[in-house]
């Protein structure tokens, strides 16, 4: 369930078509009424010139957002952060390639030989447990001619490449290379799968795409918890995130918006709920809404409205919405927990994976589950309409800049501060 809102952005510079930069000088802040007289000019540039210009402009785009300005005075990030393909490439390299990322849930690799696959940007990965129950993660790419090795999820005793039959153990070792008689200077032990770091925390499987992870060992859970959650680890690990909940189902959505639009929508402190989610708003006491900011996490809480205990009630007494930077959300309410994992599919498209978990004593209550998922689906459809509308607005030449609502959009501002910090890492 996303508690979320609209975002507003300062466009500098604007891109058009295949990435050509639109050259303009925006009006000074405070004089936006004069913006209607501005018209973009599109310089004629070769594809190579456009590519180089875009690459050289990225530092300027990053610094167009000033993290030192307090939220009461701050202007939101430029809309180019949400529309420029080269900016997404920068994010994949700086935001997603360091630190821990949620990849799945522990029930997917509960037993020896279990595995599942995933993708983030251009990284294809497979996570599995070997015969001894040890957790592994690898680049899901055959070392022979780059075929994807595994797909989906399930159980395997080994990974056999569907292209030429090269076979790998669940520990990544190359077991068999077919038809290589006559090959020179080939050492089988040097052609195992390329490893990634993997770990578990509570009911979640985490992965790290750090470029230096090739020869690193997996870390203890306590270290992973601190690295992933920072100073929010205690509040989330003391009863809020329950590993005993049972996975009920997964739903996936492809949304025509930048991945950050979905995150911003989640982080507006319930701002949009009374306007866009009438059904949800009727079940919440929005006057009780609170927001707590930690170093890598923001937590939103809201009490439920008074309800007749005889009525259908999936929200319980309080809803908690935890955002874990950069792209994972945990929603806890009543007997339910659902998670939202947002993955960029392009500069203007993302995939959101919802996993639903439920108290064990209710997993056989089909009517309750069906009604709960129906309500959740309605909220998701309302949010998709919002997010896709925001994306179209971000791409409009009429949109210049926006502001934060300081009393409710602190978590969104915090997200942007963390993005700016990541994007400035060497």
Automatic annotation (TrEMBL):
EC number: 1.14.15.7
Listed Pfam families: Rieske (PF00355), Ring_hydroxyl_A (PF00848)
Annotated pathway: Amine and polyamine biosynthesis; betaine biosynthesis via choline pathway; betaine aldehyde from choline (monooxygenase route): step 1/1
Catalytic activity: choline + 2 reduced [2Fe-2S]-[ferredoxin] + O2 + 2 H(+) = betaine aldehyde hydrate + 2 oxidized [2Fe-2S]-[ferredoxin] + H2O
Domain Rieske: 100-207
A single Gene Ontology CC term: chloroplast stroma
InterPro entries per the UniProt record, alphabetical: Rieske_2Fe-2S, Rieske_2Fe-2S_sf, Ring_hydroxy_dOase_asu_C_dom, Rng_hydr_dOase-A
GO molecular function, one term: iron ion binding
CDD domains registered for this protein in UniProt: RHO_alpha_C_CMO-like
UniProt cofactor(s): [2Fe-2S] cluster; Fe cation
UniProt keywords, alphabetically: 2Fe-2S, Iron, Iron-sulfur, Metal-binding, Oxidoreductase, Transit peptide
Annotated PROSITE patterns: RIESKE (PS51296)
SUPFAM superfamilies (UniProt xref): Bet v1-like, ISP domain
Source superkingdom: Eukaryota
Function description: Catalyzes the first step of the osmoprotectant glycine betaine synthesis.
Similarity-based family: Belongs to the choline monooxygenase family.
Protein name, entry field: Choline monooxygenase, chloroplastic
């Amino acid at each position: 369930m996303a508690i979320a809102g609209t975002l507003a952005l300062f466009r500098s510079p604007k891109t058009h078509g295949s990435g050509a930069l639109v050259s303009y000088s925006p009006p000074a802040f405070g004089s936006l009424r004069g913006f209607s007289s501005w018209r973009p000019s599109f310089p004629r540039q070769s594809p190579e010139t456009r590519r180089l210009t875009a690459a050289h402009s990225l530092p300027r785009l990053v610094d167009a957002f000033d993290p030192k300005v307090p939220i009461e005075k701050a202007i939101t990030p430029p809309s180019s952060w949400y529309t420029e393909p080269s900016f997404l490439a920068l994010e994949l390299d700086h935001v997603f390639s360091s630190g821990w990322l949620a990849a799945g849930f522990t029930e997917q690799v509960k037993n020896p030989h279990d595995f599942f696959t995933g993708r983030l940007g251009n990284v294809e990965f497979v996570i599995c447990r070997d015969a001894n129950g040890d957790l592994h993660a690898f680049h899901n790419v055959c070392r022979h001619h780059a075929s994807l090795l595994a797909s989906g999820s399930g159980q395997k005793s080994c990974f056999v490449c569907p292209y030429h039959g090269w076979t790998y153990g669940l520990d990544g070792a190359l077991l068999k290379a077919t038809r290589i008689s006559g090959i020179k200077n080939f050492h089988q032990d040097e052609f195992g799968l390329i490893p990634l770091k993997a770990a578990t925390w509570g009911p979640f499987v985490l992965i790290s795409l750090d470029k230096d992870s090739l020869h690193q060992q997996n870390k203890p859970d306590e270290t992973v918890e601190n690295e992933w959650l920072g100073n929010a680890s205690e509040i989330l690990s003391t009863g809020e995130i329950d590993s005993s909940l049972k996975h009920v189902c997964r739903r996936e959505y492809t949304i025509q918006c930048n991945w950050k639009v979905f995150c911003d929508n989640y982080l507006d402190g319930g701002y949009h709920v009374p306007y866009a989610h009438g059904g949800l708003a009727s079940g919440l006491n929005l006057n009780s809404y609170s927001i707590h900011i930690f170093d890598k996490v923001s937590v939103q809480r809201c009490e439920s409205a008074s309800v007749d205990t005889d009525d259908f009630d999936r929200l319980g007494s309080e809803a908690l919405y935890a955002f874990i930077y950069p792209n994972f959300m945990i929603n806890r309410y009543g007997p339910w927990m659902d998670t939202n994992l947002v993955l960029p599919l392009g500069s203007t498209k993302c995939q959101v994976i919802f996993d639903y978990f439920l108290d064990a004593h209710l997993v056989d209550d089909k009517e309750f589950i069906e009604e709960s998922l129906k309500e959740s689906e309605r909220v998701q459809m309302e949010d998709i309409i919002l997010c896709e509308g925001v994306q179209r607005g971000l791409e409009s030449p009429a949109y210049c800049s926006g502001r934060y609502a300081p009393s409710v959009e602190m978590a969104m501002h915090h997200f942007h501060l963390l993005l700016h910090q990541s994007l400035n890492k060497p």
